[in-house]
Amino acid sequence: MTNIRKIAKLAGVSVSTVSRVLNDHPYVKEEKRRQVLAAVNELNYIKNANAVHLSKGKTNCIGVVLPFLNLPYFGEILQGIAGEALKHGYHLQIFQTDYEKEAELDAFHRLQMKEVDGLIVTSRSNSIDTLGTIMDGLNVVFCENLYEVEKKVYINHYEAIRAGMDHLYSKGHSRIGLCLHRTFGTNSEERMRGFYDSAEVAGHEVREEWIFNECLHLQDGRDVFHQWEALKDKPSALIVTSDQVSAGIVSAARREGIDIPGELAILSFDNHPLADALDITSFEVPIRKMGEEAFKLFIEDVPSSPVILETSLYTRGTV
Amino acid sequence: MTNIRKIAKLAGVSVSTVSRVLNDHPYVKEEKRRQVLAAVNELNYIKNANAVHLSKGKTNCIGVVLPFLNLPYFGEILQGIAGEALKHGYHLQIFQTDYEKEAELDAFHRLQMKEVDGLIVTSRSNSIDTLGTIMDGLNVVFCENLYEVEKKVYINHYEAIRAGMDHLYSKGHSRIGLCLHRTFGTNSEERMRGFYDSAEVAGHEVREEWIFNECLHLQDGRDVFHQWEALKDKPSALIVTSDQVSAGIVSAARREGIDIPGELAILSFDNHPLADALDITSFEVPIRKMGEEAFKLFIEDVPSSPVILETSLYTRGTV
DNA sequence: ATAATTTGTGAAACGCGTTTCAGAGCAAGC
DNA sequence: GCTTGCTCTGAAACGCGTTTCACAAATTAT
After folding, report:
1. Predicted confidence (pLDDT) at residue B302 exceeds the cutoff of 90
2. At B80, which CATH number?
3. Are B75 and A76 a contacting pair at CB < 8 A?
4. Residue B17: which nucleotide is closest by CA–C1'?
5. Do B78 and B133 fall into the same domain?
6. DSSP state of B23
7. What does the mean pLDDT of chain B come to?
8. Would you give the DSSP letter of residue B265?
9. Distance (Å, rounded) from C-alpha A302 to C-alpha A200?
10. Is residue A205 part of a domain?
11. Same domain for B86 and B165
């Protein structure tokens, strides 16, 4: 392999000069610059990125921790991060966890090893205590409202859910169910808190069996619908935290001839194009923006205050 | 920073021995092994990944070249690659190109610089001539039927389209349109070839304005529908290469009261859950499998023959 | 008991670009 | 004429883990 020293020899200069030329440093005589470039050309020299990384102590690569790649939610976050990263000359490394703690820890371990310059954690499984010790002094951004960390960007889920509940109340609903991605994790907890707080204030009953968990994919929506159908005591409305799942519910309901919103109202989240296509009332959630902001937090040396993003309702035909 | 030499000093051994311990090489006395591990523990030593990469000449990281991150198609490929990569201890680096040639070339440049050990190109903009010169001797897998490369995995689009056309003929359609992601690129060309070949053999007319291009997102499907509506001379069926786009067409049509398949039949591709939800007839396309196979090709030293994946039709209510 | 292995270990070289430091050459300022 | 102050260069150190090679020590085989 041809390296910088061979270039130096052929060009008749020192390695420092070669390095200077290659990095556009000033203070190199035009003549030497040409000699170096000629040598680079002749020997087909290509820099070794790993040597640069080692020497510079950074890789210009940021890791993104996410559970799944085939959900629109994470695709959209990635898109946001990638767009911003591109502007700053950063690359993305993906740490897909499937919500497995080991895989998640591996990402942090890679960060410790300087394989990436930082991490954006879009969703997490390990406790913050576990992570806290290994991320000490490292550049990590969380997409949730974690009290303990300084770099964070998150959706105001609490208020969004409360606004959603109010909207449903205004339409006369008092028996409301909730359909969640999962029950643990800050974001889900915030949603649940908003849900229960609102119901309590309004004095409405909430039944355990009206809370549906592990709703990720469109198919899960279908399952939820069938569970709903089987309930003796049915809620008249569901707040669903993803348009994919809502699409499953709504399409299953329409197929079964259940009137929406007459028999079951659906208030969804994301405002994905799918919601528009299926005429689903949905909260717009600025997911891509969250990705962008996450990256911005990452590159900041002195972290600005946490970024809180708000949602806004798009009323359509399911409520 | 604490490095391997400090460990060696503290443990009273040579750096080679430390390296051996850290890499589970045999031929290390149990006592020295313990000394080394104690030192590692005491100094909180963590390996520098970049030094390993430089030294080993590889990074255990594979690059994935793709245009967009927020399309289910690419999310699914990624999922396939990531799953297989995990099994082999590889990580993923993302090169999002937006179909810009420069961004795509950058990915190849990174490969040359040994920042990644190989590339999986899911979709491409540069000509193969351009890429051919810079990927010489490098490990690159293409997801298309490129004559010039040895590592490739692709869907048999030609046959899929022909089968789709036959299916439409059998339902009495002779005026058929096509809705494509784009018109260039091997995969799209294969689809178009299948389309035109089939029409020619069947003796059916094909009109220029029945070919819709740049159909990527759900919204694009809506636009296509409105374009279709505006046509004086309408095709009675459309082959649509993505369920997202079909969803846009179908939902717009239903909203406008256009009967599907009575006035317009839709034959889609992907068999995404969405197709099921909207009762769209669709070809199952093993996209995830393609990702898995792509990675398998990547790790092979002597490339096996190209992997060709077939589609299979799921008939539902839109044809 | 001697030869042939196997086990165990360290020095040094290797992979390779960046950066600091010291110093030389040269022009502008007083 | 002499001092600042640039401009330009190269030697050497730095970042750091892996691997080869030579050799000693401990076994096993003959």
Report:
1. no
2. 3.40.50.2300
3. no
4. C9
5. yes
6. T
7. 94
8. E
9. 40
10. yes
11. no
Which residue type does A16 have?
A: S
pLDDT given for residue A176 in this prediction: 94
Whether the model clears a pTM of 0.90, i.e. scores above it, the answer is yes
- DSSP secondary structure letters along B240-258: ES-HHHHHHHHHHHHHHT-
List all residues 6 or more positions away from A318 whose beta carbon is below 8 Å from its beta carbon.
Answer: A246, A250, A260, A261, A265, A266, A267, A268, A279, A280, A281
* Strand D interface, protein residues by Cβ within 7 Å: A 12-17, 20, 26-29, 31-32, 51, 54-55, 57; B 1, 3-5, 15-16, 18-20, 22-23, 45, 47-48, 51-52, 54-56
Of B76, B110, B273, the CB nearest to A219: B273
Of B48, B86, B288, the CB nearest to A113: B48
Integer angstrom CA distances of residue B216 from A183, A277, A289, B314: 34, 15, 21, 21
Residues of chain A below pLDDT 50? none
Give the CA-to-C1' distance from B42 to C5 in angstroms: 38
Distance CA A242, CA A225 (A): 14
Give the closest residue to A275 by CA, choosing from A287, A265, A283: A283
**pLDDT digit string (tens) for B5-56?**
999 999 999 999 999 999 999 889 999 999 999 999 999 999 999 999 999 9
CA–CA separation, B298 and B98 (whole Å): 23
Tell me if A94 and B96 make a contact (CB, 8 A cut-off): no
- At B48-61, the pLDDT tens digits run 999 999 999 999 99
Q: B12 with B78, same domain? A: no
Within-domain flag for B317:
no
Judgement on whether residues B86 and B119 belong to the same structural domain of the protein = yes
Same domain assignment for residues A186 and A272: yes
Which burial class, exposed, middle or buried, applies to A118 when counting CB atoms under 10 A from its CB (0-12, 13-18, 19+)? buried
Residue whose tokens read 């992570």: A131
pLDDT digits (tens, 9 = 90+) for B132-142: 999 999 999 99
